């Protein structure tokens, strides 16, 4: 059974940092891209960042320069380092795994087959 388990969420003040982790199990995820999405209260889920098997990274404009995605293929782990956090970053953050066909598809939810249950990130003013 494939599982993605997120951890590292919590409460932080604006300007602070958090590091999210996603542990994958149940398959190798070889050649799979891994992504982070988030959903704020009352809003639709949105793309945050993605990283290919080879390490190419994609970011939403809203997090560029503040968030960094990385992965450890040997450990099947994905990380999201979040710096300079803002109250508008408050959301449930989801880890996802998939195989988007084109570079323009990495921000699309329907390109990802596997999803974690999410971890809450709350940024206070």
Structure description:
It is built from no helices and eleven strands. With 125 residues, it is mostly beta strands. The strands form two sheets. Strands 2, 4, 5, 6, 9, 10 and 11 form a seven-stranded mixed β-sheet that branches. A four-stranded antiparallel β-sheet has the order 1-3-8-7, with no helix packed on it. The chain is globular. The N and C termini lie far apart (40 Å). The mean pLDDT is 94.
How would you briefly describe this protein structure?
This protein is mainly β and 125 residues long. It contains no helices and eleven strands. It has strands at residues 3-7, 10-13, 18-25, 33-39, 46-51, 57-59, 67-72, 77-82, 91-98, 112-115, 119-124.
Q: Regions with pLDDT < 50 over 5+ consecutive residues?
A: none
Count of helix runs: 0
* Largest beta-sheet details: 7 strands, mixed
Radius of gyration: 13 Å
Q: What is the typical, i.e. mean, pLDDT?
A: 94
Strand pairing plus helix content: what structural class?
mainly beta
Write down the overall geometry.
Answer: globular
Report the count of strand segments. 11
The secondary-structure element order is: EEEEEEEEEEE
Question: Which percent range describes the beta-strand content?
Answer: over 45%
The helical percent reads under 10%
Question: Terminal Cα separation, in Å?
Answer: 40 Å
Supply database-style keywords.
single chain, 125 residues, mainly beta, four-stranded antiparallel sheet, 0% helix, globular
